[in-house]
Design brief:
alpha/beta, binds uridine-5'-diphosphate, 7-stranded parallel sheet
Length: 332
């Protein structure tokens, strides 16, 4: 069995490649390395079941070898990244989804789309169930990601209905763990790096907004189970334990041993006030439930970032920060 994973050099893509390899699959990775990092795949250099194609999946890709699965994970995924790369984000979510759906259809492969809790926008239903249609500002700065993923979901369902393609859609909620870039810009990576450097944590707004954080191993297990299931409708995969950003800052301070008070910054435009997955469907249909608490997950994640303090130049991101985003002072 062979699967193709786009975004394979990224945070989730690389963990997903590991999981499929461990399950006995061959894995073909595709990545243009704009936000992905070769370092995330370095441990697979001598793995005969793995190969990487450096390619921008916004452009068509033709393969001769057979494929049993196509998993589309390529996209800038941190708000800082997709605001820096707005057109690339729309293209990989739009054209990239079309291209990967076409590839799956040609090969008779099962297709899995990495969608996002961002399709719910700034939600007016809490927790978010899969049948909630969301509250997205299409012309705001986050619209490039949210609308690309909403289009991608619509396109995936259209291929399912029009061509009978065997499809899956996972809505991924905030996930953290090893292989995130230290300059990723997302809250967990920012806070851990700031805590380890003895810098103040940059809390945007008053820090009362909430998120629900899922440890990467749990997230990957949910995605793998979804791929093996028969569920075509979208499924939320996330940890429903909800925290304010201030609570997260306190936890990370404890886990990094930092005592520096937070620095309150401007809240980004359209930042969702709350987010929490309803995972009834995942529990019922996939038998999946997250098992790693936030404290436990942070404990597993901090050592990875500790190794990176002072070595951030390994990361090759080419963009420039746009909104009130702390620049930790190293090349991005
Ligand atoms: N955030 C913060 N400080 C940071 C980075 C993010 O307070 O250094 C906040 C951000 O405003 C949002 C939450 O943390 O309310 C999660 O942000 P992130 O960029 O991780 O992902 P999002 O859930 O917004 O996609």
């Amino acid at each position: 069995m062979r699967v193709l994973i786009t975004g394979a050099a990224g945070f989730l893509g690389s963990h997903l490649a590991d999981r499929f390899l461990a399950e006995g699959y061959e894995v073909v990775g595709v990545d243009n390395l704009v936000t992905g990092c070769r370092g995330n795949l370095a441990h697979l250099d001598d793995e005969p079941g793995f190969s990487l194609i450096e390619h921008d999946i916004s452009k068509p890709l033709f393969l001769d070898s057979p494929l049993d699965g196509v998993l589309h994970f390529a996209s800038p995924a941190s708000p800082v990244d997709y605001i820096d790369l707005p057109i690339q984000t729309l293209k990989v979510g739009g054209l990239g989804t079309h291209n990967t759906l076409g590839l799956a259809l040609r090969h008779g492969a099962r297709y899995l789309l990495a969608s996002t809790s961002e399709v719910y926008g700034d939600p007016q239903v809490h927790p978010q169930t899969e049948d909630y249609w969301g509250n997205v500002n299409p012309v705001g700065p986050r619209g490039v990601y949210d609308e690309a993923k909403r289009f991608a979901e619509a396109m995936t369902m259209a291929y399912h209905r029009a061509h009978g393609l065997d499809t899956r859609i996972v809505r991924i909620f905030n996930t953290y763990g090893a292989r995130m870039r230290p300059h990723d810009g997302r809250v967990v990576s920012n806070f851990i790096m700031q805590g380890l450097r003895g810098e103040p944590m940059t809390v945007y707004g008053d820090g009362t907004q909430t998120r629900s954080f899922c440890f990467v191993d749990d997230e990957i297990d949910g995605i793998y189970r979804l791929f093996q299931s028969t569920r075509v409708d979208p499924v939320n995969i996330g940890n429903p334990a909800e925290f304010t950003i201030r609570e997260l800052a306190e936890l990370v301070m404890e886990e990094t041993g930092s005592a520096v008070p937070p620095d309150f910054r401007t809240l980004p435009v359209d930042d969702p006030a709350m987010r929490r997955p309803d995972i009834t469907a995942a529990r019922r249909e996939l038998g999946w439930t997250p098992t790693v608490s936030l404290r436990e997950g942070l404990r597993k994640t901090v050592p990875y970032f500790r190794e990176l303090v002072g070595r951030e130049e390994r990361w090759n991101f080419k963009g420039t920060p746009r909104y009130d985003q702390p620049d930790p002072g190293s090349p991005r």
